[in-house]
Every structure is written in C-alpha cells, then in structure tokens.
Amino acid sequence: MDDDHLDVRGTIFAGDGLVSEKCRVLLNGLGEFGAIVVDAETDRILDINTTALALLGMKREEIVGREHHQFVSPAEQGRSSAVHAGKAPEPPEWVLRCSDGKSIPVLKSVLQIEVDGRKALLESIVDISARKKAEEDLRRSAFHDSLTGLANRALFMDRLDRCITRVKRNKKFLFSVLLLGLDRFKFLNESLGHEVGEQTLVVVADRVQKTLRGIDTVAIQTDITHTLARMGEDKFTILLEGIHSNEDSVRVAQRIQLLFDQPLEVNGQEIFTSVSVGIATHNGKSTSAEAMLRDADIALHRARKQGRGSYVVFDEVMHAQAVERMTLEFDLRRAVEQGQFSLVFQPIVSLTNDRIVGFETLVRWQHPKRGTILPQAFIPVAEEMGLIVPIGLFVLREACRQMKLWQDQFPSDPPLSVAVNLSSLQIRQPDLAKQVKNILKETGLTPGSLHLEITESALLENDRHTVSTLKKLKKQGVKLHLDDFGTGYSSLSYLHQFPIDVLKVDRVFVKKLDKDSGKSGLVGSIMAMAHNRGIGVIAEGIETLSQLECLKEMECELGQGFYLARPKKAKAIGRLLSRQRA
Ligand code: C2E
Ligand code: MG
Ligand code: MG
Asked: What's the confidence (pLDDT) of residue 218?
C-alpha cells in the first residue's frame, strides 16, 4: 500500500452508498481536521466528520449523498472540478460555502483512497479564517490609522494620486484637499494628558466622518465622494472628489467647523476645541499629490494665523509666495556653497569724546541677480533652514580677522572692538564656545575685543544650555551684549541669570527721545537700572542731532546710528579710522 493510495476496501464500505461506522470513527478521530470522503466518479459525498460538519454548519444527513461541488464557493468551482478530474495541481487554499451562504477559507489536502473497490477521495480541511483575518488586519493596518481606524497618509496619498491621474484624462473632473488642524492640541495633550488627547482625536474623527456622510447623501451633492484620513498628530485630511466648484469645499469646511461650536464629550468631560482648515482645490496646475498637500498646508498655516477655527482657500498669491520662498531657499543654499556673503561695519561711537571705539558687523548677501540683500530678508529663512550656522561662522571668522588687522593698523587704548550678531540657533549649538575660542586663536584677536550680540527673545526661548554656553564664553573673556532691548519683554528682571555686559537700547526708545523728558524718561530709567547692575549701555539707531544731544546730556556712554555713521565696507572703514588717527 503506497502512501497516497489508502486501501480501505471491505473494511469500511457499508454497501448502502455510505461509509461504515468504522470509517466514521476514523474520520472523527482526525480531531481538528475536517474530513470529507467523496466518490471520485460521481462526485457524491460518501461521508463527512463532525469537524467538517461544524465548519459548514450543517447536519450529516443534509450533506451525505449530495454532490461535492455544491459546497465549494462558486468562484472556486472551475478549479474544483479541474482538480478532481486530475487536471490541475491541488492548491493549498480553498474556499468552502456554508449553509448560511458564508465562505470559509480552508487549507485542503486530498488523498486518493479506495473504498470497496471504488475510487474515492479523502479531503482533509483546516479552517484558516483566523489566520486570514489576521493577515487582512495586517494589510489594513498598513493603510489605516490604528487609533481612529481612518485611512492613513499612505492610502490618502494613493487616492489623491489617482485623482491627479484622472484629471489628466478628464479636465472637467474637480477635486479638493481639506487639511484640518485641531487647534491647541498640544496644549490639550499637555494639560489633560495623552489619553484624553488620543480620545479627543477619536471623537473628532467620528464626528467629522458622520458629518461627511450627511454631506454626501443629502446636504450638498450626491455625486461628491470623500475620503477622510488622519495625516499626523493632530491633522486630518479630506479628499473631496467630484465637486463643482470651490464653494462645495468651503461649505464642507464650514459644516465641519460648526461641529465644534458644541463641546466634545471625551471620557465624561467636556472639551472645547476648534479646527482650522486649509483648502486646496485642483487648479489644473498641481502635478503631484505632494504639491496639493503642500498648498493645503500653506493655507492651513494662514488659517491658523487668522485665529482659531478659520478656514483659508489656497490661491494664486499664496502660490506666488510659496514659489518665492522655494526660490529663496534654493538660492540661499547655493549662496552658502559659493560664499556669496560679505560684511559691512557700523561704527560704535563714544558719546563722551566722539571717537570710534568699535564696530558692529552686519552681514550682506550679494545675490548674483538681485544684488545686495539685507539680513532681515534672509536671516529668518536661514534660521529655519539651519543655514544660519555656517553663515554665522563665516561672519564671526571674517569679523575677527578684519578687526585684528585694524587693531594692528590703528592701535588704541583700549583697542578697537568688534560686535557680531548671534542667532538663537547658533547659541543652541553645543560647541559654540569652542568654535569661538578656535576662531580667536586662529585670527589672533584677544577675546575682550569680541562682543557677541544676543537678542532678548533668543535668551528667553533658550534653556539652561544657553546659560552654560554664555558663561563659558564669558569665562573666555568675550563680552556679551543684549541687542534690541525694548522690542521684546523689556524687562531687566531676568538679566541677573545671564552674564550680560552691555545693553543695546533699541531705536524704538531712542526715537521717542525728542519728546521724552531726559533722565526721568524711559531711556533714562533703563540706563539707571543697567548702571545699577554694572551693565553698560549703547543707544542704537541715533538718527538726529537732537537725539544725540539728549543722550549726551543723559550721560549715555556709547551710541550707534545713521546720524553718526552708516554701515560701510571694510575699505571705507579703513579710511574713516585713518582720519580719526590724524
Ligand atoms: P541689529 O543687530 O539691531 O543691527 C542694527 C540694524 O539697524 C542694522 O540693520 C543697521 O543697519 C540698522 N541701523 C543702524 N543704525 C540705524 C539708524 O540710525 N536707523 C535705522 N533705521 N536703522 C539703523 P541691518 O544691517 O539691516 O540688520 C538688521 C538685523 O539683522 C540686525 O539688527 C541683526 O539682528 C540682523 N543681523 C545682521 N547681521 C547679522 C549676522 O551676521 N548674523 C545674525 N544672526 N543676524 C544679523
Ligand atoms: Mg546687533
Ligand atoms: Mg540692534
């Protein structure tokens, strides 16, 4: 007897078309395996064990004697008969049709046997629906957000991609992306905890989903379809397909925002929140899903600036600004690579003897097409891109090198000093103090001649690390100036935490000097407070003679401004210093 030809002749065939009790015992002994014996010629079922019966949800007498193919799912029937006719290789997975019409995936193996001289097939089957479900869950999780059950970013981008492809074939097809940002989510998370934060997202997802269903069916157009997805922490997106104009998207945004007029009920507590919405409707130009999402993001950014619970539709102006910004980023990167930066120096003058005591270094970008660009037009972008770090190092090195040359050429007591502006990102660099030390060593400038200018906001936005960096710099002998004093918090109360040497009073204060009442005015009070703490004062932005006279009267020691001298290139400064010496 070979393995796949089981001879059960005579022993189990009962002669009435059914297999004997013995055979049934054998079949039921297969335990978790379902077993069906089929007559190979007639395809009729000769017997079935209890496991297979339970699987099919039927009684034995409902099955035995019937044709086997009736229990195979219709989609599988072609395959089934081919296999039984010996024409196809046996596939390992099969789908059974149950009494209630449900399909059950099974693993099946077939053994040819002989029952009382007749060829029969012994099918053993194992229910694999649990495994299949787990596989399906896994597949779904690749495209669904585990918290809310909504589509995830990958699925959303795929649908959006399809819309972009479709619009190429059908120019009339219109669709839009709504990017929803839950306002103050970070605050909510921090104040009420992550669990409440997560539950809030679930409730929001549910509310938005229900509203969208309502919109689809009755409120606006029946032919608009939607996909709602969760994109990131507190962001959701809606893809609206088949809209007729932007108005449809705006109406959807308004409806969704209305939902948040009422508090959300999360874990038994009421949560007041709102959503801001950025809308990007396909304009015939967007060529990629990413570009459309970016447009919606720009619009959302605007909406959030307008205040909570607003919506903004992305338009041509924003598009132009986005293009401008991208161009600037591209050019700035190249500028750093090609070294398109130069320095100008603005004299800092002693108000007691009108002599130049030092300079503030100001960076300029020599753009190959646009000419000279002032720092305010590119420093904020350079900060966001992290490019301020290499730019800042260039400025620092170049300023120290130039000052050393001037000190050698124009010696004085005390020696001339140079001030360099530092951005907050530079201060956050862990090795700033070391880099400054290296540059001083490399250029031969004494630390006391280098003054680093830091703004109030940079001090306040930084952490303990800032204090330690500043202390290190101070220990090296470098002087620290607090720049633009008066534009930020304008409070001296926190100054004791930072080792500041000089306060630069911003020109907004200096401007008011004409009408101010001298020492008893604002500038006077700031000076008095600074001096009390042993901190020096430089008045910035002196533009008129009367401002200068006022400051002199108040015994302000140092001044800087267009009235005294404009920022100049090194060569012109050299001439200025030669005249001063003469
Ligand atoms: P800041 O450090 O307060 O520099 C003074 C700014 O005021 C300079 O503008 C200067 O040209 C201008 N200014 C000087 N005197 C007068 C005056 O009498 N009236 C008026 N209206 N303005 C005056 P600039 O060069 O455009 O620089 C602007 C800002 O850009 C600087 O303000 C500084 O915060 C930043 N900056 C400049 N260079 C650098 C740099 O190398 N690194 C960093 N991180 N920031 C820099
Ligand atoms: Mg400055
Ligand atoms: Mg300033």
From this structure: 46
